[in-house]
Write a structure and sequence with these properties.
The complex is a heterodimer of chains A (about 325) and B (about 425). Chain A is mainly α and about 325 residues long. Chain A is built from 15 helices and two strands. A six-stranded mixed beta sheet of chain B has the order 2-1-3-13-6-14. Chain B is about 40% helix and about 15% strand. The longest helix of chain B has 24 residues. The chains are: A mainly alpha (about 325), B alpha+beta (about 425).
Chain lengths: ~325, ~425
């Protein structure tokens, strides 16, 4: 650890500076709180206020009439009552959960496999693969979705052309979005493709920190590779898996751009997930109160899902 | 140590959840106008179809207001209202906004537009009645007619001739038989459509409903009721579905702007499509179909024949209006720009680009243009959307587009699809606003 920081060089100057200009606040009880003030102010401005505003909106009837006058009409919990009595809403929730589960598991499995591959590769190929991953990660989402949309385009898409060219079938004028299962497969592939680099590179970094001697000891004892992986590597990397899975859940649960642009800004009811549903109600129907209520419910579900998962992982971690 | 790491993970996740949601709910607003500029939102249609009219208007405006810049921000129909709502919320509305004539009612009812005096604007005595009524609410006027458009069939004369059809069809059965012949002759190419009709082109779908004597929605006991599940409408939708499935291989899950039918048409993938007058030049536009000039000799147009003998199908009278938002910063500058843009000089350019001008005095501009004359003929019978204030929500939620997809991809019988979506429309039209 210490080798990462050239402490021997840096320390004297630091100490010297400290001695020359001692902080008058150092040692006083208020110092930590004062130091937290700037960060708290930033968080309050960019996070707390919008959240407060969203909660307030969710308790109001806020249509176009109210929007023009900048004044909502208090309706209490009526928006929430309306959502919970709407059978479509529960379909949307179930669809969102299924989509998230599919995306997160695919991302994690493929990301882990690529990380393992990276660890095994020679330096040249590893550099090539890493560069490829970084390119994917660096592509702005909107641009990436547009490219994918063109590839699966009904009239001029290269995918239909290629599948036909390879005699896999007549895919000329094949519409990927008529059947929601096929449409969701395309969207899932896009989301997973975009998410893999981050997971793969992070896990690869984690793999390099797994002590070699432990792995070697396991294989000396005759453990097969998969056993070594699950019993040695995975437990060591558990914190990393927890944070990656949690972040993936959060990102995929709120996927919006991919669905929205892929379907030219007018997804049909088969393509509603919670984010799209909230947007359709808020901006599609000018029901901003209702849209905010849906968003709040989304936050609630997301917190429950993440917390349950993390608690479980923490429990397992403490037992082992 | 372990407990502390877990706590940190929990905190990080909680923050990430909150951050991602909050950033989702705040939306960037458009920037506010500087003191010496007038901000104008018009559709890209003007940019592509009649840029000359904009230049003429800007020059006239600048001559009147030297030192004031015209900041034109081109918009697309897909996101116009969402952006307008956001701008209204953020007090950064433009000084002039183009609205579709199906979109104005809700905004007039909500008080989002400034009232104007017709007499202050050029040609106001001869404005198109249909457009003027889309600007009137409770006896007051809230916008200025910009232009209208009628749809007609644009077709390939040479392909029609190749199957022995020398004159454009004048009856619906002739239209169908021509299409069948075309599919037989050219349909081996699986990209080919005799009549290119995207599945979400609901204007054409509803044109059939109107032609068969049906309607979209009617007022009933002080409420609105969608009626396109009535027997006549179901008959029309059945005819539409069978025609599209027989003659068109266009997408069923997208609309007439993705892609513009003029693009596959220019690439000989379609023998005909139904389009606005301005889609004729778009066949040649480098950003559109990019067809060579010589292609024009092969093109023709005719009004869509009705199933009733001797008539055309009624065409949807689409159009646009120009309004000044209630929170615009430079209302009088906005008004002056509208005056410049809706004056005779600019309107002449707009009409020549294939549209119907906002004034009846320019009705004959295209009389001697064989390409555009059929569009004027098609406008003889026309229909318009229900005048319910909430109508625009039906469009914004893409209900009829989703219905087109459902109808053509066999998500149930014609009757059940029509019933399901008419219930949705009824619900939206009667929602509290």
């Amino acid at each position: 650890m210490s080798s990462r920081f050239p402490a021997a060089v840096a320390e004297p100057t630091l100490v010297g500076r400290r001695r020359r200009r001692p902080l008058s606040l150092a040692g006083s009880w208020s110092a930590p709180y004062l130091l937290l003030v700037p960060a708290s102010a930033v968080i309050a401005a960019v996070l707390a206020y919008p959240l407060y505003y969203m909660v307030r909106l969710s308790l109001e009837h806020y249509g176009l009439f109210q929007l023009v006058r900048h004044k909502g009409e208090w309706v209490g919990t009526a928006n929430f009552a309306q959502i919970f009595h709407d059978p479509e809403f529960w379909h949307v929730v179930a669809r969102t959960l299924a989509f998230t589960a599919a995306c997160v598991s695919l991302t994690m499995v493929l990301g882990t496999l690529i990380a393992l591959l990276l660890a095994e590769l020679g330096s040249k190929m590893r550099l090539l693969l890493t560069a490829g991953l970084i390119f994917v990660w660096a592509t702005p989402v909107v641009v990436a979705v547009d490219i994918w949309r063109w590839m699966v385009d009904y009239e001029f898409g290269v995918l239909n052309w290629l599948l036909t060219f390879l005699h896999i079938g007549n895919y000329n004028h094949h519409d990927w979005f008529v059947n929601p299962w096929s449409g969701w497969s395309v969207i899932t592939a896009l989301v997973v493709w975009g998410a893999i680099p981050f997971v793969a590179i992070t896990l690869y970094a984690g793999l390099t920190q797994v002590p070699r001697e432990l792995v070697e000891a396991a294989s000396m004892d005759g453990a097969p590779a998969w056993r070594t992986f699950f019993d040695v590597t995975v437990p060591l990397m558990k914190p990393l898996f927890v944070i990656l899975i949690s972040l993936s859940i959060i990102w995929d649960f709120q996927a919006f751009t991919q669905i929205w642009i892929m379907l030219d800004g007018k997804p049909g009811p088969d393509y509603y997930v919670m984010s799209v549903y909230a947007y359709q109600n808020a901006f599609g129907q000018s029901e901003y109160g209702l849209g905010s209520a849906i968003s709040l419910v989304t936050v609630g579900i997301l917190l429950v899902v993440s917390f349950v998962y993390i608690r479980e992982m923490v429990k397992i971690g403490e037992l082992s | 140590m372990k407990a502390r790491i877990s706590a940190a993970v929990v905190l990080a996740v909680a923050l990430a959840v909150a951050a991602s949601t909050a950033s989702g709910s705040t939306r960037q607003s458009t920037r506010k106008a500087a003191a010496n500029e007038v901000v104008v939102w018009v559709m890209t249609d003007a940019e592509n179809g009649w840029p000359g009219a904009l230049t003429a208007a800007n020059n006239a405006f600048k001559a009147q207001h030297p030192g004031v810049d015209v900041n034109i921000q081109y918009q697309s129909w897909d996101s116009l209202l969402q952006k307008f709502d956001a701008a209204l919320a953020a007090n950064s509305a433009p000084d002039v906004i183009e609205l579709g004539n199906t979109q104005t009612t809700k905004y007039m009812a909500a008080g989002a537009l400034s009232a104007i005096k017709a007499a202050n604007y050029p040609n106001s005595k001869t404005w198109l009645a249909g457009l003027k009524s889309s600007c009137s609410y409770n006896g007051k006027l809230y916008c200025v007619p910009y232009y209208a458009g009628a749809r007609a069939v644009i077709y390939r004369k040479d392909m029609y001739a190749a199957v022995g059809v020398k004159k454009a069809p004048t009856t619906y059965s002739r239209f169908l038989s021509t299409g069948t012949k075309l599919m037989k002759k050219f349909g081996k190419n699986s990209n080919f459509s005799a009549f290119y009709e995207p599945g979400q082109n609901w204007y054409v779908m509803m044109t059939f409903v109107k032609d068969w004597g049906g309607d979209i929605a009617v007022p009933q006991n002080g409420k609105w009721k969608a009626v396109f599940d009535a027997p006549k409408a179901v008959q029309a939708l059945t005819a539409y579905k069978s025609m599209v499935l027989k003659l068109s291989r266009a997408t069923k899950t997208n609309d007439e702007a993705h892609p513009y039918p003029s693009i596959p048409f220019a690439k000989s993938r379609a023998a005909a499509f139904i389009g606005n007058g301005w889609e004729w030049p778009y066949v040649f536009d480098p950003k559109g179909g990019a067809a060579p000039k010589s292609f024009a000799a092969k093109m023709g147009a005719y009004p869509m024949p009705s199933h009733i003998k001797g008539r055309y199908m009624p065409t949807f009278l689409g159009g646009s209006d120009l309004a000044i938002p209630i929170s615009a910063q430079h209302k009088s500058l906005g008004a002056d720009w509208i005056k410049a843009f809706t004056g005779t000089a600019s309107q002449k350019i707009i009409a020549k680009a294939g549209n119907i001008a906002n004034t009846t005095t320019l009705a004959n501009v295209n009389k001697n243009n064989p390409a555009l004359a059929p569009f004027a003929k098609a406008a003889k019978y026309s229909w318009f959307i229900p005048t319910a204030p909430n109508w625009v929500n039906v469009e914004k939620a893409n209900v009829l587009k989703a219905m087109g997809t459902a109808l053509l991809t066999n998500k149930g019988s014609v009757k059940s699809v029509a019933h399901k979506y008419s219930q949705q429309v009824t619900k939206i039209l009667n929602a509290k606003s």
